[in-house]
Amino acid sequence: MDVNAAVAAAAAIAGVLTGVIAMLAFRWSEREQKRPTRTSLHTDPVLPPGVDTVLSVLRSSAVVLDEADAVVKASSAAYALGLVRGGKLAVEPMLQMARDTRRDGEIRQVELDLPRRGTGRGEALAVSARVAPLGSRLVLLLVEDLTEARRIEAVRRDFVANVSHELKTPVGALSLLSEAVMGASDDPEAVERFAGRMQIEATRLTNLVQELIDLSRVQNDDPLEDAEPVRIDELVAEAIDRCRHQAGAKQITMAAGGTADLSIWGNRGQLAAALGNLVENAVNYSPARTRVGIAARRVTAPGGDLIEIAVTDQGIGISDKDKERIFERFYRVDPARSRATGGTGLGLAIVKHVAASHSGEVTVWSSEGQGSTFTLRLPEAGAARDRATDDQTPGLDEDDETGQTDGTTTVSSPYEPFSAPEVLP
């Protein structure tokens, strides 16, 4: 009887202990589930108040990293630049900067060249990266894209170098010729010869300065502020009259034709300069006793009718490798010939800017030894006026800083012949 009671008592005690142990284990498990874990700290960090709003309005690419180098927040620009991939910062130098800043709290900045994603070209993306601590556990990375700024700076530097070289040539020639005149004061024939050369160089210098002024003006001015209807017939007559002396000296026939009574809407001075440059180039690069034609017509386009003005010559033509560069500033297909004709290398760059600022384009067709056709396409007066009223006139691209070809300058097929133009003396 006593044995049975002892067994029962032992069983009761064991049951009680088991229950107590089970309850303690349950309570401990609940506490562990409620306690923040290291993993949860890494995957669900909290940004300081207001940081998310500030990052959303920054122009720079922004990335926030936690203490495990995981991306907490990244702007869309950061993804576009390829800085963040798979929730991680993909640029190792920036990642190392973030770790160093997290360790010592120092703000760091560096400029890097990164490979450009998805272009298939070896171009580098120039960026400036700045890392700073954000609270006690987070690090903020701001990345600024410097690629375009560097390109524009290089273009300006090259432009200044080209201008300096172009100005130095006639100025140096004038200096040498003036010394020659002084040394030949007792030789009237030599003085007359050197004075003639001085006049040529002075004219070249004057043309260069004037075209620099014209190029600056068409880049900075809004041509539609003083816009007016401009008759094509008047522009063509003015361009022919401008080149009549050069054409007569080479016995070049100039002919005008096409559709009459056409008008475009724009700045008369800029349009006259653009067409005059095309005609002047055609005369300068044509052999003696050839023909230069200027013709205009109306063509139908989805955005409204366009006016096409084509200038055709029978000159030396342009090679394929030069077609894509002829609208660059100071670029010459034949430098020696340009020197002989007094060309500055800015005429076609001015034409390009005038066309773009009037919502048009300039195209070229050419074949070596057969001649060239340059075509200005501009909106007709009514369509262009409506576009200006709606404030939809596009500005120039940044590529125009370089004077290189873009959507404004293209290579086209031969221009369709017009009806027989009128021959002008």
Automatic annotation (TrEMBL):
Transmembrane segment boundaries: 6-26
The organism of origin for this protein: Streptomyces liliifuscus
Main localization category: membrane
Membrane protein topology class: Multi-pass membrane protein
Signal peptide region: none
Keywords: ATP-binding, Cell membrane, Kinase, Membrane, Nucleotide-binding, Phosphoprotein, Transferase, Transmembrane, Transmembrane helix, Two-component regulatory system
Record GO biological process: cellular response to phosphate starvation
Gene Ontology terms for molecular function: ATP binding; phosphoprotein phosphatase activity; phosphorelay sensor kinase activity
Entry's localization field: Cell membrane
Lineage per the UniProt record: Bacteria, Bacillati, Actinomycetota, Actinomycetes, Kitasatosporales
EC nos: 2.7.13.3
GO terms for cellular component: plasma membrane
Residues of the Histidine kinase domain: 162-382
Record-linked CDD domains: HATPase, HisKA
Disordered: annotated segments: 377-425
The protein's name: Sensor-like histidine kinase SenX3
